C-alpha cells in the first residue's frame, strides 16, 4: 500500500457503544470527485500518531472494477477522516 494521507469527506454511523462504522467516502483528485463505498471493514485499531489518538480502519472496496484494500484514519481530536494508505 502507498501512503497518500489525504483528507476525505465521510459518511459513517456510530453504534450505541460508541464504535464507528465508515460507510462511504468522497475524495477529490485533479478536480474529479470519486465516491467509494466500503464493502468490508477488515480490522479496527485505536492508535496514537504524532500525539493524537486515531481510529484506524483497514477496509476493502471496489475501485475501478478492482477490489482494493486501503487504510482510513479518524482523528478523534480534529474530527477529520484521512485516506492514509491505498
Molecular structure report:
This protein is an all-beta fold. It has one domain (3-85). The protein is built from no helices and six strands. The protein has strands at 3-14, 20-29, 32-49, 52-63, 66-75, 80-85. Strands 1-2-3-4-5-6 form a six-stranded antiparallel barrel. The N and C termini lie close together (5 Å). The model has no long low-confidence stretch (mean pLDDT 93).
Short description:
The chain has strands at 3-14, 20-29, 32-49, 52-63, 66-75, 80-85. It has 86 residues and is mainly β.
List the helices and strands and how they pair.
Elements lengths: L2 E12 L5 E10 L2 E18 L2 E12 L2 E10 L4 E6 L1
Keywords:
single chain; 86 residues; mainly beta
- Report the sheet-strand fraction: over 45%
Shape: globular
The oligomeric status of these chains comes to single chain
- Main β-sheet, spatial strand arrangement: 1-2-3-4-5-6
Helix content: under 10%
Low-confidence stretches: none
Q: How far apart lie the N and C ends?
A: 5 Å
